[in-house]
Write a structure and sequence with these properties.
Elements: E1 7-16, H1 22-38, E2 42-58, E3 61-74, H2 75-87, E4 91-99, H3 101-119
Antiparallel strand pairs: 1-3, 1-4, 2-3
């Protein structure tokens, strides 16, 4: 079926362990960016939030290094990425969300609004 190969819009949020060095944090982000692009996806936007306090402790940690990435990819790629994330000991939590057209438009408006605020 042709719809199986259709690219879908997704957002990935990953919380890495807070003990990573700056270089390790950037390398971990690059690993997922490279994974998406090498499996037929394209990166729409990425944002490293850095160290944030979590709402509740996870694995006795109260902070984590947050990374958010919006991308388009074939849906079967997410299963492969899920396996990689589950094996990665640097990741505390992760979540992949499929975005509908309204969510994509909202994210675009939000990015443009932030870009206009920075330029002003």
């Amino acid at each position: 079926m042709a719809t199986e190969n259709k690219l879908q819009n997704y957002e990935l949020m990953v919380i890495f362990t807070p003990v990573l060095s700056e270089d390790d944090y950037k390398a971990a982000q690059s690993k997922f960016i490279d994974f998406v692009t090498s499996n037929g996806g394209t990166i729409v936007h990425q944002d490293a939030w850095g160290l944030r306090t979590m709402a509740y402790p996870i694995a006795k940690k109260t902070t984590g290094l947050y990374f958010v990435m919006e991308y388009t990819a074939p849906s079967e790629m997410n299963a492969k990425m899920e396996i990689q994330m589950n094996r990665d000991e640097q990741i505390i939590r992760h979540m992949v969300t499929r975005l509908d057209k309204d969510a994509v438009a909202y994210n675009l408006r939000k990015r443009n609004k932030n870009a206009n605020q920075v330029a002003a």
